[in-house]
Amino acid sequence: MLRGKTALVTGSTSGIGWAVAQAFAQQGMNVMLHGLGDPDANEALRARLEREAEVRVKLHSANLAEPAEAERLVIDTASQLGGIDILVNNAGIQFVAAVEEFPPERWTEIQNVVLNASFRATRAAVPEMRRRGWGRILNIASAHGVVASPFKSAYVAAKHAQVGLTKSVALELAETGITCNAICPGYVRTPLVENQIDAQAKVHGLSRERVVRDVILAAQPTKRFIEVEEVAALAVFLCGDMARSITGAAIAMDGGWTAR
Ligand code: NAD
């Protein structure tokens, strides 16, 4: 039932978003890839996905630090791929600092990329989904959408707000055939996190193994990273017909982190 549908996955040139885009394409969906970074490398990803999955794949590089760009991204997706059935608000950034030293411009950037762009993209996509009487909105939030850690005030605030947005939108759209859910992963093995392992190993003078177990995965009871394919499989399930009654949920995929 997902074959031929159109999906926009923000921040899909790397990590979780790339895995979701690949999984969607393997289901026969046409996909708008999106992200910053090296345009040639991104174009190579686009071409590879289109060739391997035999679906239409377009590429966009809207900068979501300017939230109005999220609307342009949705409009361009609809015009280039003939509509929009599925929106995944996945793009995200992190910055770690004590609250009294937190640079206000970094705070604003995180709110824009994580929260304000999700709102603007949702706002732009809903009318088209309503017309179709079907839609799926997935917000890739975080365990930090339901619990906090120190030094991540901007990220935790933005992710909690993204979960709140999810619930409100789900209630508004409950009778329309459109669902809206948040996926709340714990630590997922992505390039972002891999880089943190090396950095922390240096700072603490510990081996990579100790950093993973005692620093990064201290709060994750399973003591192993979630793989991007696990998040992508959940995203595919939430798009399916058997998930039509799941809406307004913040679904934990966190190795038990938020069960404590
Ligand atoms: P990543 O750094 O691998 O990928 C981030 C993507 O977002 C890239 O495609 C990047 O180009 C894009 N992006 C960043 N800033 C942007 C901007 N200003 N405009 C447009 N695009 C921008 O990250 P990831 O680890 O795959 O994380 C993806 C999402 O999952 C984020 O929202 C993150 O908060 C969330 N998340 C990640 C983890 C984790 O452990 N990796 C855990 C919980 C939640």
UniProtKB/TrEMBL annotation:
**Keywords, in A-Z order:** Oxidoreductase
- Quote the EC number: 1.1.1.30
UniProt cross-references to PANTHER family, sorted A to Z: 3-OXOACYL-(ACYL-CARRIER-PROTEIN) REDUCTASE, 3-OXOACYL-[ACYL-CARRIER-PROTEIN] REDUCTASE FABG
Q: Which GO terms describe its molecular function?
A: 3-hydroxybutyrate dehydrogenase activity
Q: Does the keyword GTP-binding apply?
A: no
Offer one Pfam family short name for this entry.
adh_short_C2
Query: Which InterPro entries has this protein been placed in?
Result: 3-OHbutyrate_DH, NAD(P)-bd_dom_sf, SDR, SDR_fam
Q: What's the family?
A: Belongs to the short-chain dehydrogenases/reductases (SDR) family.
Task: Please state what the protein is called.
Answer: 3-hydroxybutyrate dehydrogenase
Q: What is the species of this protein?
A: Horticoccus luteus
